[in-house]
Amino acid sequence: METKEQFKKTHLGRKISRIREIRGIKQDALAMELGLSQQTISKIEQSEDVDDETLNKISKALGVSSDAIKNFNEEAVVNIIANTVNNHDQSASVFISPNFNPIDKIVELYERLLKSEQEKNELLNKK
Questions:
Q1: Which of 1, 18, 62, 98 is deepest in the core (most CB within 10 A)?
Q2: CA atoms within 13 A on the CB side of 12
Q3: N- to C-terminal Cα distance for the chain?
């Protein structure tokens, strides 16, 4: 049976693997970039712990910070990658473009807040 401590413990290798997959980078391409073998990358991705020096090199090659790897969750990493795409090999990049206009969303939110405030004022005036 797993304890809460075991459940909370991070598996950095899996996080590295997932980020690499999100970026569309194969193990052998990452290995070449780092001057390692594909087998070494595979071993790192199977490891629960990764030393800081290796983690820093991998994070740089993946285009994310080492903190992003340590604190990995799908949504955060996708946002970080979208904001820090600086890889010269565009085939390995992930581009995210929203299918909505952010200004429209801000106006919509403002209108909902305004309507909510008007409703509150109406209730207070009735008393």
A1: 62
A2: 19
A3: 58
| Residues with Cβ within 8 Å of residue 16, at least 6 apart in sequence | 44, 45, 50, 55, 58, 62, 69
Binning pLDDT at 50, 70 and 90, where does residue 4 land? very low
Q: What percent of the chain has pLDDT over 90?
A: 9
d(CA 104, CA 122): 27
- Contact status, residue 23 vs residue 92, Cβ threshold 8 Å: yes
CATH fold for the domain made of 4-92: 434 Repressor (Amino-terminal Domain) (1.10.260)
Q: Which of 102, 98, 87, 74 lies closest to 14, judged by CA?
A: 74
Longest dimension (CA), the chain: 75
